[in-house]
Amino acid sequence: MLRVAVVGSGPSGCYTAQSLVQLDPDVLVDVLDRLPCPYGLVRYGVAPDHEKIKSLQNSLRAVLEHERVRFLGGVRIGGPGGVPAERLRELYHAVVYCVGAATDRHLGIPGEELPGSWSATEFVSWYSAHPDVPAGDGFVRDVRSAVVIGVGNVAVDVTRILARAAAELSPTDMPQGALTALAASRVRDIHMVGRRGPSQARFTTKELRELGTLPDAGVVVDPAELARDPGYADPSALPAAQRRNVEVLRGWADAPPAGSGRRIRLRFFLRPVEVLGADGRVAGVRFERTAPDGHGGVTGTGRYEDVEAQLVLRSVGYRGVPLEGLPFDAVTGTVPHLAGRVLRGGVVAPGEYVAGWIKRGPTGVIGSNRPCAKETVTSLLEDAAVLVRRDVPDDAVDTLRAAGAEPVGWPGWQAIERAEAELGASLGRGVVKLPDWEALLRAAGAAGA
């Protein structure tokens, strides 16, 4: 019987477990996660008002409820207090690391670390109730103007959440603290800024259009900024996705903004050079005007513009972080591998594998993890005849506990779900997420009471 540990219960981890049980009738899979809750970025990264995408949890649930798959939350691998990767390797015939890209890229400009300057991931984690992020109102307190640096889908998400009225967010599973803070927010201007032109923006047309449907917000686009993009004047040569984006932006540029409340200002050809401060916190962002360089990039013009802001969110990409005990390529932010097999010093490390963003970098959409996981599982199963020769425990849970972990099994997760449903009912809402470690572990503990 082949025993495999999958580290990470997000889409890549679940698709890895799914491929394993589909392709090998004799494999047993433990899906480990640092958090007591499964689903990774589907729970903690997809915006709460995107219920259709969040419903993907239902298919991931089916994987984790498979008779040969076991969820073990609350198990940290590597780092202080964690189970060493070397020890985990001793407990299973194979270990597949699906740990994603856990941090954001930095801008590398002065003032970036001022209070009020955050990564978009931190903001997303706050309104998604990630237990590592404080649940107070510190993100939006006393904020009148916000700057979102980046023009991808995550930038659109955080812009949309800042612009939505509380009544629109109340039916979601957003934690009560974030909902209360956003309801009291005095944000009126949200600037979403890209250093290149609209035809190079990374957002999808569906996400972009949503900004124009918000009942209490209007979209403002400067036709002069759009016109600097060669692809804007004649979009016929652009790929279909970029052409649709340009068409949406052209429509907004030609019409007065709707809504009487907040303003979403889409800006292009502006490169951040400094986060400005006053009284020890963010007061604005200084941008340099850029221009197309004729090769798909931009060049600075030496002209500058300051935009007032009390909140700055950077959304310029994700990056993998090293996991203690695994090799790491600092340039790519990934673990070196060959078709998913971990490479140590250029040599395949028996029984160690990777899938997802830590394997290929932060690219693609959720569905991209399926073929990625299948490639890794194919490699693993090709190696299985050799891997199973090594003796491993029949059940690793006792050894994980001895190593300091307190695994939260599926009944513990189900208890968390019940507690979130009860919390929502008490607030007159639907399901409302528990926002902190204490509440999650207390709820999980109720399963064994």
How would you describe this structure to a colleague?
- The chain has 449 residues and is α/β, with parallel strands linked by helices.
- It contains 18 helices and 18 strands.
- Helices cover 34% and strands 22% of the residues.
- A seven-stranded mixed β-sheet has the order 3-2-1-4-18-17-16. Strands 6-14-7-8-10-9 form a six-stranded parallel β-sheet. A three-stranded antiparallel β-sheet has the order 11-12-13, with no helix packed on it.
- Strand 16 and strand 17 (341-344) form a beta hairpin.
- Helix 17 packs across helix 18 (437-445).
- It is globular.
- 46% of the residues are buried.
According to CATH, the homologous superfamily of the largest domain is: FAD/NAD(P)-binding domain
Our count of domains comes out at: 2
Could you report the average pLDDT, rounded to the nearest whole number? 94
The major beta sheet can be summarized as: 7 strands, mixed
Give unreliable regions as ranges.
none
What is the C-alpha radius of gyration, as a whole number of Å? 23 Å
Apparent shape: globular
Give me the CATH fold name of the largest domain: FAD/NAD(P)-binding domain
Helicity, as a percent range: 25-40%
Sheet/helix structural class: alpha/beta
Strand order, main sheet: write it out.
Answer: 3-2-1-4-18-17-16
The assigned CATH architecture of the largest domain is 3-Layer(bba) Sandwich
What is the number of E strands? 18
